[in-house]
Specification:
With 134 residues, the protein is α/β, with parallel strands linked by helices. 29% of the residues lie in helices and 22% in strands. The chain has helices at residues 8-16, 27-31, 57-64, 79-90, 128-132, and strands spanning 4-6, 20-23, 34-35, 38-40, 44-47, 50-53, 71-74, 96-99, 119-120.
Length: 134
Amino acid sequence: MVYEELDPEGAYHRQREGWRYIDVRTEQEFAQGHPEGAVNVPIFFMGPAGMQPNPGFLSVVQRLFPTDTPLLVGCRSGGRSARACELLASKGYRQLVNIAGGVSGSATVAGWRQQGLPWSTQLEGVSYRALTSG
């Protein structure tokens, strides 16, 4: 495995140590609330035929974060973020954590919100639209 996996509480401790949080959920999911300090770079967009890959995912992450940046990667429950970690590792990122359980939790891990970790609905400067405009 080319990335580490931590539960939300472990990821929160890393975030407090300076790791950056990328939320790879859709823009709509992110707008409903997200871990405080996260930036939104969706790995997929919702299209008429379901989830479609975001062709700009890697280029946006590479523009925002050099490959030596320690990154926490989260989604709803951990699946999309695991895929994002694999893609990022293939481009030279080496300090990667997939957040098991994501924001909503899984059958075995309580999510970020369920664990009462800092939550935000603030979009200014952290939404995908803000990160990719001008």
